[in-house]
Design brief:
- With about 550 residues, this protein is mainly beta.
- It contains six helices and 30 strands.
- It has helices at about 5-25, 50-60, 95-105, 115-125, 175-185, 190-200; strands at about 30-35, 40-45, 65-75, 75-85, 90-95, 110, 135-145, 145-155, 165-170, 205-210, 215, 220-230, 235-245, 250-260, 270-275, 280-290, 300-310, 315-325, 330-345, 355-365, 380-390, 395-415, 415-430, 440, 455-460, 460-470, 475-490, 495-510, 510-525, 535-540.
- The strands form five sheets. A 16-stranded antiparallel barrel has the order 13-14-15-16-17-18-19-20-21-22-23-26-27-28-29-30. Strands 2-1-4-3 form a four-stranded mixed sheet.
- Helix 1 packs antiparallel against helix 2 (about 50-60).
- The longest helix is centred in the first third of the chain and has 21 residues, at about 5-25.
- It starts with a helix and ends with a strand.
- The model is unreliable at about 25-30 (pLDDT under 50).
């Protein structure tokens, strides 16, 4: 007899017994005591129905052979003695060759937890695409007072992912949907793939997964429903800085950075950036990014950059680029470089006119952060350019190689503690001596802090930074940072080793993320000067 038949028969016997007791006694006035003859444990039930439910629960906990041994009535007290019998969760299991191969066990073995074993088998077949499999157990006999059962699996039909349905924000680019289908459609429906679908939508730069994906099982198909919302991605980033310039004169500086993202539901980006540094240099930068050209995975990125140093010189750079949108986080691209520099002050001999053109390759990886206060979890950017440079006044042509790398990562330590590590390096290789308006510029708020914006000039530089961050709830964090780096400037025969340090505080207000930072930097061997302290205040607002 199967375990299910035994359970059903036991329920009928118990029901009839207590129906008899209830008829011939005033159950509502009685105390019902249930006594386990194995452990002598006494359990009080408030009435006959509760006593019946207690005995019924034993069969649900694998005591299928529970027997009533005696019912004793004394006034308003009824004592019910029972023998649970053997726990059928500790059994000798017998399986066929196919099942033994799947669970990687022998055809016959002992287990102390049959329920756990059946769950493992069920999950094993689910991961093979048999979503609606059923694990059956059949009681065979008692062997040395141990129940022996046979396990078998009714697999059902395998399930594959057939299609996706977008709900909520339905104006996403068609290529975005096709990329999801390309990655998952036709694959088996199991917990692993279902989790991958959910993870691929988490922290997407343009959409929010409102709730976990839902599944609709039809007779001959399996549909995954994605419930999306459009994310607020437009940002306004403003920074005001205070500090001394090269002549130790107190000055204001700052930058404005406005990003318009996904306004036309094409996952496009338009970025406008303006910056003024204490040494009267100004930068204007315009970028546009379209990720899905002609409903494909090819995208384009166009960048126009203008830098003007007071009335000395001006550089205009045009960088058209095409890239493969590998996934939501990675881009691999090729780009052209067209740059012109014009000297406006003929008395300034450290600069000269030039025209550059070239071709290059780049790679970018951005992983959004789970912590809303942090802009990134991981950020990588690598560039390599081959440039041909013409100096018209000297009638000289020179080939140059440009390299650039940026890496940043937020590491979770424990509790509210995080560590941000960042490294950046750039290099220009040229057979001729580089002039000032060709050199790499770095330093400032988002670069080597403790120095003025774009105040450091080099043909090669590198620096690394470590920043400890302590979260105060989900609305603020403190940070303490230190940086170390070095620059090479062949023109001036300089190879200084640099350092900087500082503290900061970032917090959310209704208008956005507010940042406040105090920093100081200098060359190794020079003492810290209070007058070199830089103070920055900024706001990042999403709309």
């Amino acid at each position: 007899m199967s375990s299910k038949s035994e359970t059903f028969l036991l329920k009928k016997i118990i029901f009839i017994l207590f129906l008899f007791i209830c008829v011939f006694s005033k159950a509502q006035q009685h105390e019902f005591w249930l006594i386990d003859i194995q452990t002598q444990k006494n359990t009080l039930a408030k009435d006959s129905i509760a006593a019946t439910q207690f005995l019924d629960s034993l069969s649900q906990n694998n005591y299928y052979l529970t027997q009533l041994t005696k019912v004793k009535k004394d006034g308003n007290k009824t004592e019910i003695y029972f023998d649970k019998g053997k726990n059928f969760n500790e059994v000798l299991v017998k399986v066929n060759d196919e099942l033994a191969k799947n669970i990687k066990l022998e055809n016959q073995f002992f287990t102390k937890n049959l329920d756990s074993l059946k769950k493992v088998i069920n999950e094993n077949y689910r991961n093979q695409g048999f979503t609606f499999n059923r694990v059956k157990s059949k009681f065979l006999r008692m062997e040395n007072n141990i129940p022996q059962i046979e396990l078998s699996v009714i697999k059902g039909n395998p399930r594959n992912i057939d299609s996706f349905v977008i709900k909520g924000y339905e104006k996403v680019p068609k290529r975005f949907i096709k990329n999801i289908e390309k990655e998952f459609q036709g694959k088996k429906y199991d917990d692993q793939n279902f989790l991958r679908i959910n993870n691929s939508m988490q922290n997407h730069p343009f959409v929010i997964l409102e709730k976990p994906p839902q599944t609709l099982f039809k007779k001959d198909s399996t549909q995954i429903f994605l419930f999306l919302n459009k994310k607020k991605t437009n940002t306004f980033d403003g920074i005001i800085g205070f500090g001394n310039d090269n002549s130790n004169k107190f000055t204001f500086n700052g930058s404005l950075n406005v990003n318009f993202k996904n306004m036309f539901n094409a996952f496009e980006t338009v970025n406008v950036f303006w910056q003024r540094n204490p040494d009267k240099g100004q930068t204007f930068d315009l970028k546009t990014d379209l990720p899905y050209l002609f409903k494909s995975n090819l995208g384009t990125n166009i960048n126009i950059n203008i830098y003007r140093q007071d009335s000395t010189f001006a550089n205009v750079k045009f960088l058209p680029s095409f890239y493969l949108h590998a996934n939501n986080r990675q881009k691999i691209g090729v780009r052209g470089t067209f740059e012109t520099s014009v000297v406006m002050d003929s008395l300034y001999t450290q600069v000269r006119d030039f025209r550059k053109k070239g071709i290059g390759f780049w790679y970018e990886f951005n992983e959004p952060s789970d912590v809303e206060l942090f802009l990134y979890k991981t950020r990588l950017r690598a560039e390599a350019d081959y440039i041909s440079t013409n100096y018209p006044k000297e009638n000289v042509n020179v080939n140059q190689n440009n390299l650039y790398f940026l890496g940043e990562r937020n590491f979770y330590i424990s509790g509210n503690n995080y560590l941000n590590l960042k490294a950046e390096t750039a290099f220009i290789n040229s057979k001729t001596e580089l002039v000032t308006n060709e050199l790499l510029r770095f330093g400032g708020w988002n670069s080597f802090r403790g120095f003025n914006e774009n105040a450091l000039l080099a043909d090669f530089y590198y620096y690394g930074s470590a920043e400890y961050r302590y979260l105060v709830g989900s609305q603020a964090f403190f940070d303490i940072f230190a940086q170390y780096g070095q620059l090479h400037n062949k023109n001036l025969s300089l190879k200084p080793k640099l350092y900087s340090f500082g503290i900061g505080f970032n917090f959310f207000l209704p208008i956005g993320l507010i940042s406040f930072q105090i920093s100081n930097g200098n060359e190794f061997g020079n003492s810290v000067k209070f007058g070199d302290t830089k103070i920055h205040w900024g706001i990042l607002s999403r709309f």
